[in-house]
Amino acid sequence: MNLRTFLLCVCLTLPASAQAQMSDVSCDDTARMTETLKQVIGAERKGMGLRDPETMLEVWVTARNGDWVVVQSYANGTSCIVAMGEHWEGSFANPA
Question: On the chain, which terminus has fewer CB atoms closer than 10 Å, C or N?
Fold first, then answer.
């Protein structure tokens, strides 16, 4: 599944609104978003780090096609997709 299909799935699971903003269609409950990333698009979390005491950034990558998603998770249990793209290239922690 590609990123466009993933976003469509996320949009369909959220309440519809005639005046929905980008944040409305890209945020969800953290547990639900994690399951969607894993089960629907087959993504794996490749890295994470604290942005501040209340916010964590995560990079999710789908190995089969190189799609990537950056998710910002908040202490209140909400996560938002803040960036996405294609052609992810990882690096080794200790190159030979």
Answer: C
User: How many residues would you count in the chain?
Assistant: 96
> Using CA atoms, how far apart are residues 74 and 30, in angstroms rounded to an integer?
8
Q: What is the pLDDT of residues 31-60, one digit of tens each?
A: 999 999 999 989 999 999 999 999 999 999
Closest CA to 80 of 5, 2, 14: 14
- Residue 12: band (very low, low, confident or very high) from pLDDT cuts 50, 70, 90: very low
Helix axes 3-13, 30-39, angle to 10 degrees: 140
Amino acid (1-letter code) at residue 23: S
d(CA 64, CA 78) in angstroms, rounded, equals: 27
Sort strands 67-74 and 44-52 into parallel, antiparallel or unpaired.
unpaired
